[in-house]
Amino acid sequence: MNIDEVVLNFAPGTLMILNVVLALIMLGIALDVAPSDFKVVAKHPKPFVIAILAQLLVLPAVTFGLTFVLPVQPSMALGMILVACCPPGNISQVLTHRAGGNVALSVSMTAVANPLYIAALPLSVAFWGSLHPTARTLLREVSVDPWRMLLEIFLIIGLPFIIGLTVRAKFEAFAKRVQPFVKWFSLIALFGFIVGALAGNWSYFMAFLGIILLVVFVHDAVALAIGYGTAYIGGLGTRERKAMTFEVGIRNAGLGLGLVFTFFGGLGGMAIVAGWWGIWDIIAGMIVASLWARHTKRRTGSEKGDPSGKSVPLSDSVRAGSGQQGDAA
Fold it and tell me: What are the strands, taking DSSP E only, across the chain?
């Protein structure tokens, strides 16, 4: 069985549900974003510049190289590229908090990054996909319309984000009350959706189980390492490195899965890679965050690396910058 010839079963009505769930995820992110988050970006741009470069340039470029190192078929290679070009996942803030990282920085990076991905995602997929000697054939076969993809991404990312920002600005108390419910409901719904999609195509998943597990494991580990490595090279402090690790390593693979069914006809390799990514990066992220928190607590007596356990304001931690290089990991 050739994974490039596999087309997964997916009802059109189910795709609409997926898009609604993805829109709710973006709404939940926006409800947690305050105007001050954008002001911090303007005043202290260094962490955000590093994060954007890591996500938009380093991760897709390294992923492109991985497609030649790992034993992947063209559709799997294109799936890896698509996931790498997706925006950060909402659960990155949860993992950053669990690891004792700078949650304010994580929220602010997500607030800045997601609007950029409205245009960056289709352009990145088209650029890296067209460079790949085998995957570019699939791009030509499906005739992906970049303008239609741009519109689809705007409806899933941009519109809910604008609505969420507006509600947060005008009804802050209401936004703070409903945000946790929207956030967790959408995350649980997305996780259940991905599990259901894999279960509905279980025979295909099991047929390629070994290679899928290997590819996604390596790709996800590299993505997490890129997040930490770029933050370290950029001279960011320990808590900022934790935030960057998950901001770069956790991708919105659910959005990628939706795009696979919308624009690539449920192409097997792409869909299975994106589907398993959506499950595995949560599992891997929780393992890393828990081990990190335990390690920090053992060395400092606090999961955040501060014996008092108090959270450091974003502006203060950013100003500290490279001065935190010696902090306990």
Answer: none
CATH number for the domain spanning 129: value is 1.20.1530.20
Is 68 part of a structural domain of the chain? yes
User: Which residue in 120, 286, 105, 263 sits closest to 191, CA to CA?
Assistant: 286
Query: Rounded CA gap, 163 and 167, in Å?
Result: 6
| pLDDT 10s digits, 3-42 | 766 666 666 667 777 788 888 888 887 887 777 666 766 7
Does residue 328 lie in a domain region? Answer: no
Residue with tokens 């795709």: 15
The whole-angstrom separation of Cα 324 and Cα 329 is: 10
User: Which residues are CB-contacts of 149 (< 8 A; sequence separation ≥ 6)?
Assistant: 121, 122, 125, 259, 263
- What pLDDT digit, counting tens, does each position of 150-196 carry? 888 888 878 888 898 889 888 889 988 998 888 788 878 877 877 77
Instruction: Determine, yes or no, domain membership for 327.
Output: no
SS3 content of the chain, % helix, strand, coil (to 5): 80, 0, 20
On whether residue 326 sits in a domain, the answer given is no
Classify 7 as helix, strand or coil: strand
In the chain, the number of structural domains is 1
* Dihedral Cα 151, 157, 162, 165, nearest 10 deg: -170
Domain that holds residue 85: 3-304
Strand partners, 251: 88
Which candidate, 259, 79, 267, 49, places its Cα nearest to that of 154? 259
**DSSP letter at 269?**
H
Contacts of 32 (CB under 8 A, 6+ apart): 93, 107, 168, 175, 179, 183
Q: What is the pTM of this model?
A: 0.80
User: What type of residue sits at position 59?
Assistant: L
Q: What are phi and psi for residue 16, nearest 5 degrees?
A: -60, -40
Q: How far apart are CA 181 and CA 165, in angstroms?
A: 17
Instruction: Burial-class residue 281 by CB neighbours within 10 Å (0-12, 13-18, 19+).
Output: buried
Secondary structure of residue 28 in the 3-state scheme: helix
